Amino acid sequence: HARIFPCLKHYLLLFLSTLSLSHTPASIYVNQTQHCKMLPGMVSSQAQLCRSNLELMQTIIQAAREVKKTCQKTFGDMRWNCSSIDIPPDATKYRPDLDRGTREAAFVYALSAATISHTIARACTTGDLRLCSCGPIPAEIPEPGYRWGGCADNLHYGLIMGSKFNDAPMKMKRSGSHANKLMHLHNSEVGRQVLREALVKKCKCHGVSGSCSIRTCWRGLQDLREIAMDLKTKYLSATKVVHRPMGTRKQLVPKDIDIRPVRENELVYLQSSSDFCSKNDKQGSVGTQDRQCNRTSLGSDSCDLMCCGRGYNPYTEKLVERCHCKYHWCCYVTCKKCERIVERYVCK
Questions:
Q1: Phi and psi of 39, rounded to 5°?
Q2: Can you identify the CATH homologous superfamily of domain 313-347?
Q3: Separation between Cα atoms, residue 283 and residue 98, nearest integer Å
Q4: What is the pLDDT of residues 254-284, one digit of tens each?
Q5: CA separation for the pair 119, 18 (Å, rounded)
Q6: Cα(180)–Cα(252) distance, integer angstroms
Q7: In the chain, what are the domain boundaries?
Q8: Cross-strand bridge partners of residue 312
Q9: How far apart are CA 246 and CA 145, in angstroms?
Q10: CA-to-CA distance for 251 and 244, rounded, in angstroms?
Q11: What string of H, E and C letters represents the secondary structure of the chain?
Q12: pTM value?
């Protein structure tokens, strides 16, 4: 396994140990305590949690993979496209933009915290975790024609176990600067707060011939994609903070409007980001050269913004699609294959 996993001694404790687990090979299934030693990037308290909750670790590994996939989808239309997470499994650490206390780091920590609790809550519902079951039935009386039932997502259990694992690196004494720890703990809690707000009423109809005379309802979480988009909005309006004495201890306060404390629902960051236009290893930027852009868009994926004024190159791509589909009684569909040429654009 030494050839499979990164060398752990080079990991900085604050480099998203949850995300390190996304590199765990699919062939590894955590069902024995010695398997905990094979998982990359974990601090001692996380390893202890692994040994005492083996079943939970498979869910956490799944969550780590979801963070990577969701982040890249959410930022696919922007210069920074979550490339910081997409690193070779044998790399010694993540790119500097996640180490410098940037707004990108703020988003990734918040998404990581929300995702791990979301995945655990859903695993309780699906029966993948034997240590938990469905969430509680709400105390409020439902409207006429509605009744509580089904299996609610167990958000309470997800939040407890998720925060215990996700926040462990930031609570160690030798885990980076105090300012960084405060920032990451704050943003992780923002992620969990967005998750709490994503617990909504979901219903299923019952009745003769689909009349929906009565609805069975439960509390369920929105899809992770929607939660990530809410966090992206907070990323775009994140507040820059400084670490300064407030009373008897140092706290994070807004840099330009320090007359107010940091709000509980806003993402915060300590360092300004690169513009991510050009490759810069020190800044953690991979640049936008060869990124696909949209020539007709006015948004962040437009060729003007994505390519930072450098221009773009067109190319054509042949797409093969199903077309002229016909339904045959009974019961199959036949289609033809059609080809069309589309024009694409990539940044110079």
A1: -85, 130
A2: Wnt (Wingless and Int-1), C-terminal domain (3.30.2460.20)
A3: 10
A4: 988 766 788 999 999 999 998 999 998 888 7
A5: 13
A6: 10
A7: 8-237+263-270, 313-347
A8: 347
A9: 54
A10: 6
A11: CCCCCCCHHHCCCCCCHHHHHHHCCCCCCCCCHHHHHHCCCCCHHHHHHHHHCHHHHHHHHHHHHHHHHHHHHHCCCCCCCCCCCCCCCCCCCCCHHHCCCCHHHHHHHHHHHHHHHHHHHHHHHHCCCCCCCCECCCCCCCCCCEEECCCECCHHHHHHHHHHHHCHHHHCCCCCCHHHHHHHHHHHHHHHHHHHHCEEEEEEEECHHHCCCEEEEEEEECCHHHHHHHHHHHHHCCEEEEEEEECCEEEEEECCCCCCCCCCCCCEECCCCCCCCCEECCCCEECCCCCEEECCCCCCCEHHHHCCCCCEEEEEEEEEEEEEEEEECCCEEEEEEEEEEEEEEEEC
A12: 0.83
From residue 242, alpha-carbon distances to 73, 183, 279 in Å are 31, 10, 28
Separation between Cα atoms, residue 216 and residue 151, nearest integer Å: 10
- Taking the C-alpha atoms of residue 294 and residue 305, their distance in angstroms, rounded to an integer, is 10
> Distance between CA atoms of 334 and 318, rounded to whole angstroms?
22
Q: In the structure, what pLDDT confidence band is assigned to residue 4 with cuts at 50, 70 and 90?
A: very low
pLDDT digits (tens, 9 = 90+) for 201-227: 999 888 776 678 888 999 999 999 999
Calculate the CA 272 to chain-centre distance: 21
Please report the sign of the dihedral spanned by the C-alpha atoms of residue 49, residue 50, residue 53, residue 56.
positive
Tally of CB atoms within 10 A around 281:
9
CB contact at 8 A, 59 and 162: no
